Amino acid sequence: MSEPTPSVPVVEAFEVTKRFGSTAALKDVSIRVMPGESHALVGRNGAGKSTLVSILTGLRKPDTGEVRFGGAAAPSIADRDAWRERVACVYQHSTIIRDLSVAENLFINRQPSRGGVIDWRAMRRDARELLDHWKIDVREDARAGDLSVEARQLVEIARALSYGARFIILDEPTAQLDGDEIKRLFRRISELQREGVTFLFISHHLQEVYEICQAVTVLRDARHIVSAPVSALPREQLIEAMTGERGGLAVADAAARAALPADTAIALEVKDLVGPDYEGVSFTVKRGEVVGLTGATSSGRTSVAEAIAGLRAAKSGAISVDGVKLPPGDVPAALAHGIGCVPKDRHHEGLVLTQSVAENASMTITRLLGKFGIAPPAKKNAFGQKMIDALGIVAQGPEHVVSGLSGGNQQKVVMARALATDPNVLVLIDPTAGVDVKSKEALLSVVDRVREEGKAVLVVSGELDDLRTCDRVLVMFRGRVAAEFPAGWQDHDLIASVEGVSLHEE
């Protein structure tokens, strides 16, 4: 495929429309991505981003409209090799096969052969040359499952480039990376741009759009709202374009909140907790208090939260709720003693995607809805409808299968399940990861509502907006609680602490 001249877009979609039954997933959407740029595609969950990506990668054909690459019409849907030469998508959930080596992943289904047998030496040599050419520091014989998330993403990019594609779509590439990994990824993206690679960058982290992208396209309600240089679209205008409402993210800032009485009872106590990637962790959360626990991905914050929820056992130490010590690694005991949890991975730990909103939301309380743990469908659906109304879940009804919901609405169903037992302690692990601005507002408003009911909330997150709802924030660094910030902290101070840097050393 010939390289497009600088004035010709790498990819262009003209007035693309796509319907699924009576639902319009895209309505006359257009986008133009120029060579060598990093172009952001943003919008709320359900705005049409995934459908547009499926059309730009040849997985779906538009009902009307046209896609062009380098000024020429897109290949037919059936010609997969031609699509691979033009575009590739590195998805949030990796398509790397973990049990194969890096070399096998790079050349899967196109391994070099000699006499009808795979030429393993040639494949490893070709893999090494490919990795070296794109400056990707990974061993070609390493098992892919042993690589970091960051390294697996780079291997996927190298695989795409090896087909000849110079247009790469990155779908939430930083969702599972910590601060240093994100910086390294952004450096590689910038280097690849200088070498003629073009990116479409999809992210809910708007700050990243300003850090790495030169242009941005906003979709809302399946329509194209605006395309502009990033420098010409300030953050508030970008959020307004995404939501259709003026102003930024509306979340309750704990800095304006009255302090709790000194004699407020302690709901959760963590004492000298030791686990695989943390040690000596101690803190308390009072009734009506929201405490944040943050740190880099490798700080141990998630493991501590999962130990509190009973999802994994600590090696030693104690976790107590209302003065009662919990057995380690026991989810039913945690539930019985009043802990509700929104886990980190909604797809694998939070939801049964093939079941309905009602079935997912009522999963922890079926014994309360019917005899012998069997709940009548009418009772399940009534509870599901109650949660749809309470959390603003956009669904056709309680029997709507959750796999058909947007990411933000799926996360609200996970929140519904956590709240179903009316817990005294709510543990939220990355509660707004991968959701849009309005869903984020809705989920964080639940935190404020639960706090007002006198419940304790532990918000475990690396998102600054999540942490603004907290009365105080504990920062973990290399497995220990390293600092505590009262409400009203400054972004740069908290970020510096997360990265192990003090801005105020004498």
Automatic annotation (TrEMBL):
Gene3D superfamilies: P-loop containing nucleotide triphosphate hydrolases. Keywords: ATP-binding, Cell inner membrane, Cell membrane, Membrane, Nucleotide-binding, Repeat, Sugar transport, Transport. Residues 11-246, 260-503 form the ABC transporter domain. InterPro entries: AAA+_ATPase (IPR003593), ABC_carbohydrate_import_ATPase (IPR050107), ABC_transporter-like_ATP-bd (IPR003439), ABC_transporter-like_CS (IPR017871), P-loop_NTPase (IPR027417). SUPFAM superfamilies: P-loop containing nucleoside triphosphate hydrolases (SSF52540). GO terms for molecular function: ATP binding; ATP hydrolysis activity. PROSITE patterns: ABC_TRANSPORTER_1 (PS00211), ABC_TRANSPORTER_2 (PS50893). PANTHER family: CARBOHYDRATE TRANSPORT ATP-BINDING PROTEIN MG119-RELATED (PTHR43790), GALACTOFURANOSE TRANSPORTER ATP-BINDING PROTEIN YTFR (PTHR43790:SF9). This is Ribose import ATP-binding protein RbsA. It comes from Paraburkholderia sediminicola.
